[in-house]
Amino acid sequence: MASTLFRTIQIHPFLLYPTALFSRRNGVLYCTMKSSQTQTATQEKQQPPKVKVPQHALKKTVDKITRDYEAIIGIETHVQLSTLTKAFCSCPYNYGSQPNTNICPICMGLPGALPVLNSKVIEFAVKLGLALNCKLSLNSKFDRKQYFYPDLPKGYQISQFDIPIATGGYVDLDLPLEFGGGHRKFGTTRVHMEEDAGKLLHSGNGDYSQEITSLTSIYSYFSKHTVDLNRAGVPLLEIVSEPDMRTGIEAAEYAAELQRVVRYLGISNGNMQEGSLRCDVNVSIRPVGQSEFGTKVEIKNLNSFSSINRAIDFEISRQALLHSQGQSDQIVQETRLWEEGAQKTVTMRKKEGLSDYRYFPEPDLPEVILTQEYVDSISNSLPELPEAKRRRYEKMGLSMQDVLFLANDMNVAEYFDETLSSGADIKLAANWIMGDIAAYMKNEKLSINDIKLTPQELAELIASIKSGTISGKIGKEILSELLAKGGTVKGLIEEKDLIQIADPVEIGKMIDKVISENPKQLEQYRSGKTKLQGFFAGQVMKLSKGKANPGLLNKILLEKLNGQS
């Protein structure tokens, strides 16, 4: 019944747009609806003109900031948990489902519906708290965060306020070499559990400022704006960082590391494009040497790591330019949106303070009490995390470039480890995975779990090349077939008669034949054109159908060309 009712739910106009203005003209009552976007534009007209950051001056401004200003950056990250059901009811959540098909009275906030906590949410919260080196609260509680928005049917969000489940941790990461490299350690203030809100759906031309003069036009107008409550009540973990980051790239890499951690833990898919990982960035600047923080600005609508980097760099430049022109009073505490097309931030709304939310303890849920035995059992079940894996790979002698590539994806790391456990050479295994195998996956748009080549067969291929059974060139040909069709290395070598010729007598005969057939080139070689050695080597390879051992071939060829044998 509840699901049927909400499939076609429409947002009530007077609640969605509280700026409705009623006026009487010639005895008729008119309703004019103005959107918050129109309000913002009107307010901006009344304010001093905003300073624009010219594109050609952006780099120059950033360079100046490096010398004169210090950026202070913190991130609030929301991670959507991969539980089978929502946080406080038994409804499932599947991304992309038809609107309002996974809802119940609890999701809808109907009177009398009581929440029941999903125990998996606690388990996943403890896992993340331990992974981020936090101190766990053995006794925590839920709170009601009061605010109005059309996609929040209860009129409040169940969250955690003063006693979060985890506090005081940190994240270790390594910056990519193209961004200067180096190790970084960023603090995390807290991790807390909460529920997600629903989602507003908009259609039409988005013109919210037209005058509405009849019930028909009201219905037509608001039929374009609906709410989908499928996501309402989906469990989230919010990770609040310390303001330890100083550049856009540091912030982007911090967010990328959190994505790696939640994927390694198996608590979330971390897909930003699906909203499973959402980042709100707080940015302020201050003159170098000043201890006081500047005015903090929040940036939303960041749907990729590169957009986090670019949005922060733009906002730093914008604030620095205002400072340099004596207009620092125009930097106000507000929420801004990142416009990907325009590559700039724009005002969304003024930032609320904590008092606006009127937190108080959630009366319908008991305290969350953890035992040390429960925490220890989860701690003992944690997998090797990205930071530990990177340090292990580094100790193997791999370069930082190799380390970052292999540890970035948990499945790639597992594939690499399984290849090594089958006896493969460390560096050769890394090279094959990062080179030919990665190129194949990119071209075919596959993950490493989708390819037909097993880690055991990759180890066998590497061993066959290293032992001289097949050449590197033949190895690449075998690899292509194994990736696409599967099979075994030994089976393909036998089936296609690909065993490398390593008999010096047989190779010598082939070289003699090629030399005798090319007397002119031999004379030119002995007259000083030594580059012709490559010509002779190619002809021998052609004669052997690519099976001659390259090292042995070149050694014997050089001797015969120089008349030593």
TrEMBL record:
Tagged with keyword Lyase: no
NCBIfam families: gatB, PRK05477.1-2, PRK05477.1-4
Superkingdom of the source species: Eukaryota
Asn/Gln amidotransferase domain residues: 414-561
EC number(s) on file: 6.3.5.-
Record note on quaternary structure: Heterotrimer of A, B and C subunits. Subunit of the heterotrimeric GatCAB amidotransferase (AdT) complex, composed of A, B and C subunits.
HAMAP family: GatB
Main location: mitochondrion
Swiss-Prot/TrEMBL catalytic activity: L-aspartyl-tRNA(Asn) + L-glutamine + ATP + H2O = L-asparaginyl-tRNA(Asn) + L-glutamate + ADP + phosphate + 2 H(+); L-glutamyl-tRNA(Gln) + L-glutamine + ATP + H2O = L-glutaminyl-tRNA(Gln) + L-glutamate + ADP + phosphate + H(+)
Enzyme kind, highest EC tier: ligase
Keyword terms, alphabetized: ATP-binding, Chloroplast, Ligase, Mitochondrion, Nucleotide-binding, Plastid, Protein biosynthesis
Chain's role: Allows the formation of correctly charged Asn-tRNA(Asn) or Gln-tRNA(Gln) through the transamidation of misacylated Asp-tRNA(Asn) or Glu-tRNA(Gln) in organisms which lack either or both of asparaginyl-tRNA or glutaminyl-tRNA synthetases. The reaction takes place in the presence of glutamine and ATP through an activated phospho-Asp-tRNA(Asn) or phospho-Glu-tRNA(Gln). Allows the formation of correctly charged Gln-tRNA(Gln) through the transamidation of misacylated Glu-tRNA(Gln) in chloroplasts and mitochondria. The reaction takes place in the presence of glutamine and ATP through an activated gamma-phospho-Glu-tRNA(Gln).
Protein name: Glutamyl-tRNA(Gln) amidotransferase subunit B, chloroplastic/mitochondrial
Keyword Chaperone included in the entry's annotation: no
Any Pfam family: GatB_Yqey
